[in-house]
Design a protein that fits this description.
Oligomer: homodimer
Largest sheet of chain A: 6 strands, parallel
Order of helices and strands of chain A: EHEHEHEHEHEEEHEHHHHH
Number of strands of chain A: 9
Largest interface: A-B, 92 and 91 residues
Chain lengths: 275, 275
């Protein structure tokens, strides 16, 4: 297959490297940043740069860019893609993106498979890319009515890249779950480090501080978009969390020993049961 | 020196092992659990069990038990300790404990040095003890008017155990900082896993879920006590966090793109500046 990766940042760069290491497909890259393209070429992460002729003959295109840029790509280049070319993305939100891509389809004959590799790290850019972040992680495919063979192709490639688990779900369910598992922790980390005490934590902190604050060094432009594109589900989960925190706060403030211990016990049970 | 460790759980067991590995002091243990005592003896973590005669001649006693049990020890055995015996603890709260120990001093001639080794892990008990958790961590000494030589002695032992940094502070300041660095993350982890979505997180979660929920498998009896003994500082920090979370929630709900991105940027700056 001829595979084009659009956006050679942390995720796109890692996908390129993983495909080159584990498959014999032709892997080409596109990026507005010429340095990323050069770095990717020189380390062998891609066979070369993709031009518009390559897009016309591509079998599969990975969109590894912000949601807005993914929509822009669909608008500008979607009509170039050949019939049954698989267009797949790696964005952290799905419902708004799927609706946007469908709205922009026009004369495009491609098949869209919404994907979300559940892997990342605090740093971004091609220099941070590393295919080992995928090993054992889960790859979500948010089925939105496309043909089964296309989703299966994306799945096969994900397994070849080292992903340990494929999760099939709907765009709506994806966004609900991601609000809880990923977006809330990012909002939380940011809310946490805004405490005035944060300035003086050194010497008083250990693993708990480190873990909660880890993702606070956030890519603010990207996450603003992701949060707003998942407004409803995220606000619901934030309300759930604030409600639970306030419940703890009130039990602590009122000195309700038995109720507090019972609620902590319930939380411990949830963690032990759900992992 | 003759050193007695009261409570051979995760922390007491780790202190015993660290002292045996790195010093030539005599290390004796006390524990209500006979199995912990036997395990500690048989693996060489202690030279033997401490009886009341040993308490009378001890040079230093580590209280590695819950705050209530530490106060009980001071009430029952404080008067046995010889003049200038150093009594030090490892409890996660300081103001209430220091006041309690002073109130119970009676005829006790010992010197009290409030201490807090900033290390731990999710599991508890002697079987989880491991002196490597101390390596490079910080050891807080909450000075409360005792003589300088006693705090220095505790400091020397902490450095011998492998701690990387000694922090001198007051009991009040300790409790304020711990509310932020340790207690809030524990409340948070528990509040987080109480979301109904938690049951279905598998396949949708990665590092962010794991990090925020890590300490939710909590020792509910211990932390109920620690939270209530630090009520004022903890409620203040929880209010700070809930305020910041609600601010994010409202910006997301109202779709305030620029303000949201600016607040995320501010959080990122705080994390980069403060580590």
């Amino acid at each position: 297959m001829k595979i084009v990766i659009v956006g050679l940042g942390l995720i796109g760069g890692s996908i390129a490297k993983a495909l080159r290491q584990n498959t014999s497909h032709q892997v080409l890259g596109m990026d507005q940043n010429q340095d990323s393209l050069l770095d990717a070429c020189s380390c062998g992460a891609i066979h070369g740069k993709a031009g518009s002729e390559d897009l016309k003959s591509a079998d599969l295109v990975y969109l590894c860019v912000y949601p807005e840029a993914a929509l822009e790509f669909a608008a500008n280049f979607g009509p170039l893609l050949k019939e049954n070319c698989i267009l797949t993305d790696t964005c952290g939100i799905k419902s708004a993106l799927c609706a946007g891509i469908e709205a922009l389809r026009g004369t495009g004959k491609y098949v869209f498979v919404p994907g979300h590799p559940m892997a990342g790290k605090e740093r971004s850019g091609f220099s941070a890319s590393d295919p080992s972040i995928f090993v054992g992680a889960s790859y979500i495919i948010a089925e939105s009515g496309g043909p089964a063979w296309a989703a299966e192709q994306v799945e096969t490639l994900a397994l070849a890249m080292g992903f340990g688990k494929i999760v099939r779900t709907t765009p709506q369910r994806h966004d609900q779950m991601i609000a809880f598992t990923s977006q809330v922790p990012h909002v939380l980390a940011c809310a946490y480090v805004l405490s005035p005490q944060c300035q003086a934590h050194q010497g008083f902190s250990a693993g708990s501080y480190r873990d909660v604050s880890r993702v606070a060094d956030i890519n603010d432009a990207l996450w603003t978009r992701l949060f707003l594109d998942n407004q409803e589900a995220l606000v619901k989960e934030l309300d759930e969390l604030v409600g639970n925190l306030s419940h703890f706060r009130n039990l602590i403030s009122a000195g309700k020993t038995a109720e507090l211990q019972s609620l902590l016990h319930q939380a411990g049970e949830s963690k032990r049961r759900n992992g």
